[in-house]
Structure formats: C-alpha cells, structure tokens
C-alpha cells in the first residue's frame, strides 16, 4: 500500500516543510560554498593560517547542509536530510563568526590596538563565544 503524506497546505497537518525546498538553489549554494571553501583551504595551507580552521569547517558544514536541502527537495519526508540541513546550516555561521573573532584579535595584537579596543583582547574570544552559544541556544529553542 502506498504511503500518503499530509497536504502541506493543511494548517493542522504535521509537515517538515511548509514549502517545497528548491533543488536549483541548493545546487547553486553547494557549488558556491564548495568553491569558496576550496579557496580558503588553499589559503590556509599556503599561509599556515590556523585561525581559518573554523572558517573551513563552517564551509564544509554549509556544503553538507545544502546537500541535505537538495535531498529534501526530492523527498520532503526524509527526516535525516531535514535534521542534517537544519543543524548544519544553523551551526556554520557560528564557526564563521569564531574565525572573524580570532582575526580581530590578531589585528588588535599586530597593530598594538588594544588601547583603542572597547573589549580587551583577553576577553574578546570569551565574550564572543559566549554570545555565540547564547545565540545558538535561542535559535534552537
């Protein structure tokens, strides 16, 4: 017997998506994030920039998240693909932000700019990471 799924337009029905995820958009973002991540990997290896590691991991999470979105466009009832895209696309920006905080800390250190910074360098990462965790908890709640 064939499975029947509820109508996505029925407001009382449980559905994972209330719209049809776009396969074309998912593919475009997979290509864009793959290209960008490869470029960042090359830069990180060439310059030995360890502060780019969270950025690269964030790029990989974005790629895998959009792979899940592409799978969801073909099968909207695939719970694994839904969870994959939801979690990875939510976590990736926090990793991008972590790289930005580390870069800011390096800039402040290199320019001897701690006296001009609102936040002291030693507290910078702690404050921003705490903000990221708080933001993540709010978004996932």
From TrEMBL:
Ranges in a coiled coil: none
Topology in the lipid bilayer: Multi-pass membrane protein
Signal sequence extent: none
Top-level taxon of origin: Eukaryota
Membrane spanning stretches: 23-42, 49-67, 87-111
Pfam families according to UniProt: RTA1
Compartments where located: Membrane
Keyword Endoplasmic reticulum carried by entry: no
Keyword annotations from UniProtKB, A to Z: Membrane, Transmembrane, Transmembrane helix
Gene Ontology CC annotation, any one: membrane
Protein name: RTA1-domain-containing protein
Native organism: Glonium stellatum
């Amino acid at each position: 017997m064939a499975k029947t799924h509820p109508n996505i337009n029925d407001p009382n029905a449980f559905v994972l998506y209330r719209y049809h995820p776009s396969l074309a958009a998912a593919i475009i973002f997979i290509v864009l994030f793959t290209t960008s991540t490869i470029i960042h990997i090359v830069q990180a290896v060439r310059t030995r920039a360890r502060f780019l590691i969270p950025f690269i991991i964030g790029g990989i999470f974005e790629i895998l998240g959009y792979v899940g979105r592409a799978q969801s466009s073909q099968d909207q009832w695939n719970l694994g693909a839904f969870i994959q895209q939801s979690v990875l696309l939510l976590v990736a920006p926090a990793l991008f932000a972590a790289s930005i905080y580390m870069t800011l800390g390096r800039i402040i250190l290199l320019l001897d700019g701690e006296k001009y910074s609102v936040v002291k360098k030693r507290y910078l990462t702690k404050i921003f990471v705490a903000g990221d965790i708080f933001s993540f908890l709010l978004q996932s709640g």
